[in-house]
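Changelog note: in this version the structure field was regenerated for every chain. One regenerated record is shown below for reference.
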Amino acid sequence: MPAAADAPIALRRLSRADFAMLGRWLAEPHVARWWNHETTPEALERDFGPSVDASDTAEIYIAAIEGRDFGLVQRYTFEDNPGYIEELAPLVEAPGEALSIDYFVAEPDLLRRGLGAAMIRTLVYATWRDYPAAPCIVVPVSAANTASFRVLERVGFIRVAEGPLTPDNPVHGTAHFVYRIDRPRTLR
């Protein structure tokens, strides 16, 4: 059983073969609390099928360590989500070429082992390579989700703003922190 975040993290694109696992993951209490997502086969197809088919530009990855799937991370450009730029505008500028990410570690026995930070770090490095024009990654996080913003801080994200945004789960209220990591100067 993988335990250490110092083993390499593998990211592979989400496929329909992953939907049953994804439905189970989204139903895990520690994930459902923040993602507030339907888990029926129809809902999974509706919400994730377009990304699998590449008709939605969001790139969704399953993260694995030593061959064991443990989490999900996705990325998308602000350019492809102009409404998101508008929502963030009162708090922070989100350049169109910038990206945002969403993430969770799903397997309860793998929580608090550094895998969330390792998964995000892997995607950040891949983003600088895959998106050479991206100046930064901007991530809004519910102010109530301490684990989520702490993992971003461990990866090197800096809190740049705070204020009201529409929550993924209405029970958490509108208070959000906005984090940013800039492309390293050596990669400009």
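Spot check on this record: The chain has a mean pLDDT of 92. Helices lie at 19-27, 29-35, 41-53, 82-88, 115-130, 146-155.
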